[in-house]
Amino acid sequence: MKRFHIALAVADLEASISDYSARLGQPPSAVVPGQYAMWRTDLLNFSINEKPEMAGQLRHIGFEDDAAQDYSSSNDVNGLMWEFFSAAEQDARIISAYGVPVNR
After folding, report:
1. Which pLDDT value is given to residue 104?
2. Strand 2-10 relative to strand 36-40, pairing
3. What's the whole-number mean pLDDT along residues 46-51?
4. How far apart are alpha carbons 34 and 12 in whole angstroms?
5. Would the pLDDT of 71 be above 70?
6. Residues 23, 52, 92, 78, Cα dihedral to 10°
7. Residues 35, 20, 52, CA angle at the centre, nearest 5°?
C-alpha cells in the first residue's frame, strides 16, 4: 500500500492528538508520550512532533510505500524534504528516535 506522508510540528502533543483524532476519525496508530504521534489511514500517514518553537510548520512530506526497500530522502526544487520509506522502516525509526510507542 502507498500512503501520502505529512509531518507537522505542534505546540501541545496531547491537545493535537485529540484534535487530529477527531479530524481523521480514528486514534493514532502510535504515540510516544510528550514527543510524537502517528496515524495511518487508508490514504494518509500523518505524524506530529511536539516542537512548540516550530508549531504549525510543515516538517517534511513524502510517501510510505510497502514496496520501498529502505529509507531515502531528498529535497525538492523548493527545499522541501521528501521522504520515502516502508511502514516497517518507519516503525523502526520511531523506536530509534523516540522510544517504544504506546497504543491508545
Report:
1. 54
2. unpaired
3. 97
4. 8
5. yes
6. 80
7. 40
Q: What is the DSSP letter of 60?
A: E
Contact assessment for residue 85 and residue 68, using Cβ atoms and an 8 Å cutoff: yes
pLDDT on residue 89: 84
| Cα 80 from Cα 90, distance rounded (Å) | 19
- Residues above pLDDT 90, as percent of the chain: 76
Residue whose entry in the numeric block shows the C-alpha cell 530522502: 73
pTM across the whole model: 0.86
Report residue 71 as a C-alpha cell: 529509507
8 Å CB contact between 28 and 38: yes
Q: Are 37 and 13 in contact (CB under 8 A)?
A: yes
Per-residue pLDDT band at 11 (split at 50, 70, 90)? very high
Residue 73 CA to chain centroid, in angstroms?
14
CB 3 within 8 A of CB 63: yes
